Model the fold of this input.
Amino acid sequence: MSFKERVYSLLRKVPKGKVVTYGQLAKMAGKPRAARAIGVFMRINPDAPRTPCHRVVASDGSLTGYSAQGGVKKKKRMLVEEGVFFIKDKVDLAKSCLNNRYTFTS
DNA sequence: AAAATGACGGTGT
DNA sequence: TACACCGCCATTT
Done:
């Protein structure tokens, strides 16, 4: 299983109403410094409906991108729809950031 | 094998 | 708060 696949499977476990940062995903998948590479994985997300790539935000809570129709604007709308807290156009990480740990084998 | 490609993150101004 | 810089990295050419 490639690093990319691990990231995707972890992302699929992020519950609605919560978000995770690229850096956290990287750490969970076992490569703390691979946040940037993960950004690429999201961009080329092959299975958009099944993988909630809209729940991935930057470390400061800003929405840095969304390749699907609508761009970041659509992304924010989806998150608000799910109940994620916002402060202007940034996610309120203190309230909506996933801080629990998800494992591969769980 | 080497270079290019980004939806990053931390630091400094 | 906001930029610009720069180091990092898996994947694909």
Observations:
- Strands of chain A lie at 20-21, 56-57, 86-87, 90-91.
- The mean pLDDT of chain A is 91.
- Residues 21-23, 26, 33-43, 45, 53, 56-60, 63-67, 72, 75 of chain A lie near DNA strand B (CB under 10 Å from a C1').
- Chain A is about 40% helix and 10% strand.
